[in-house]
Design brief:
This protein has 372 residues and is α+β, with helices and mostly antiparallel strands. It has twelve helices and 18 strands. The chain has helices spanning 14-25, 56-63, 78-86, 95-102, 104-113, 159-163, 222-239, 273-276, 281-289, 312-316, 318-326, 357-371; strands at residues 6-10, 29-34, 48-50, 68-71, 90-91, 121-124, 139-143, 153-156, 170-174, 178-188, 194-196, 200-204, 211-216, 243-252, 257-263, 303-309, 331-335, 346-353. Helix 1 (14-25) crosses helix 9, helix 3 (78-86) runs antiparallel to helix 4 (95-102) and helix 11 runs antiparallel to helix 12. The longest helix is centred in the middle third of the chain and has 18 residues, at 222-239. The radius of gyration is 20 Å and the shape is globular. It starts with 5 loop residues before the first strand and ends with a helix. The relative contact order is 0.12. The structure holds adenosine-5'-diphosphate. Residues 119, 140, 142, 147-150, 152-153, 173-176, 178, 181, 204, 209, 248, 260-261 line the site of adenosine-5'-diphosphate.
Length: 372
């Protein structure tokens, strides 16, 4: 029924590859564009175009014969998407939605204008503006654009930290006393139907701001879970979202719920939905952007997802370690097939499911021991 639709995805990393698998189930063929000729998706399809999604010309060339375009990364050329939309290509999420989220400060302003609680923060042009915060340390400094996996985030505690700060347009935020970090994935289609996943709880390693592991459902109590999903739905409606959105939030030590940031695409915090949910976030994205009924988002079993990062220790016996990992009952390995070996880079993930959250957490310890 859908095989004549020409669907394009901007970005060809692991998220794109996971969308591709669901596209196969729906009988779709997708074209993918990434600036890296060896990006994960390049191995799986002949419809792979090497070009920078941030380039106007490249996006125009890629999109001109497509019916629908969606994204798996935010760094895309908005002007080209607007132009393609005028030519009749459907762009979901809408260019306006992507644009407001691309910049952490405009994102914050948008949320505030809709009375959504966010972490208080101000915009600065560069390092020279930081002197204003000398008496307000510690603060959290974030690049307005193109940050990911914590690479655009630093905590400033001292004047020396300020001297080593990013020199780029940034947001300076209050340092939040975080009790839990959670994420809610929400999908919305053109007809305004909304499907919201249960919150997942994230645990980050302290020094690098990179995800250590994530459990679903989040252990935050029913009331807080309901508050979080209600907030995610409100944001999806405010954005008039068509597609999928991850809403990262903080539960503060004094039990307030604050939105940290949005991602208008499938998200790391939704990897577990492949095995653990009735409808995966990847299938849900395709349903949402193709105007199909949304799938049920319910969780089938408790689950845990752990990113696998490139490291010297892992490299000592990668095949042996991955085999031991696959020996854990209910462990599902996702290997991204990335080239290069930058330490800290996400090169795969493992999802574990079980009947109880306690069993799942016990398995996380075994996995961590194998990978470290
Ligand atoms: P990225 O876009 O790189 O994922 P985030 O905004 O999600 O960046 O920040 C990365 C991590 O930094 C968060 O998951 C959280 O642990 C920490 N962090 C971010 N903002 C704050 C803040 N205002 N106060 C305290 N910690 C923060």
């Amino acid at each position: 029924m859908l095989e004549n639709l020409k669907v394009g995805i901007l970005g060809g990393g692991q998220l794109g590859a996971m969308i591709m698998r669901q596209a196969i189930d729906l009988g779709l063929r997708v074209s993918i564009m990434d600036k890296d000729a060896h990006a994960p998706c390049s191995h799986y399809t002949a419809d792979f175009f090497c070009g920078d999604p941030a380039s106007f010309e490249a996006v125009m060339e890629f999109g001109k014969d497509l019916d629908v375009i969606t994204i798996e990364k935010e760094a895309v050329n908005i002007n080209a998407l607007r132009q393609l939309e005028k030519q009749g290509v459907k762009i979901f999420p809408a260019p306006d939605t992507i644009e407001v989220i691309q910049d952490k400060f405009t994102q914050k302003q948008f949320l505030l204008s809709h009375h959504i609680p966010v972490v208080p923060g101000e915009a600065i042009q560069g390092k020279n503006d930081l002197y204003r915060y000398e008496n307000k340390l510690p603060v959290c400094l974030k690049k307005r654009r193109d940050g990911y996996d914590g690479y655009g985030v630093m905590v400033l505690k001292t004047k020396e930290d300020m001297a080593a700060a990013f020199d780029a347009p940034c947001v300076v935020e209050e340092l939040v006393d975080i009790k839990h970090e959670i994420s809610v994935i929400v999908a919305r289609n053109e007809h305004g139907a909304v499907a919201c996943y249960d919150p997942v709880m994230m645990v980050f390693s302290e020094e690098k701001f990179i995800l250590d592991y994530q459990i679903a459902p989040a252990q935050i109590g029913e009331e807080m879970s309901e508050k979080a999903t209600a907030l995610a739905r409100k944001i999806a409606d405010a954005l008039k979202l068509v597609g999928i959105l991850a809403v990262e939030m903080f539960v503060t030590k004094d039990n307030r719920l604050l939105v940290n940031e949005l991602a208008p695409r499938p998200h790391n915090s939704g990897h577990h939905t492949i095995e653990a949910s009735i409808t995966s976030q990847y299938e849900q994205l395709l349903r949402a952007v193709l105007g199909l009924p949304l799938g049920a988002p319910g969780l089938r079993f408790p689950s845990l997802m752990m990113n696998i990062l490139e490291s010297a220790t892992l490299s000592t016996d990668k095949p042996g370690k991955l085999k031991r990992l696959l020996d854990i009952p209910g462990a599902h390995l996702h290997w991204y097939g990335k080239e290069g070996s930058r330490p800290g880079r996400k090169i795969g993930h493992v999802t574990v499911t079980d009947n109880t959250i306690e069993n799942v957490i016990a398995k996380a310890e075994s996995i961590r021991k194998i990978l470290n």
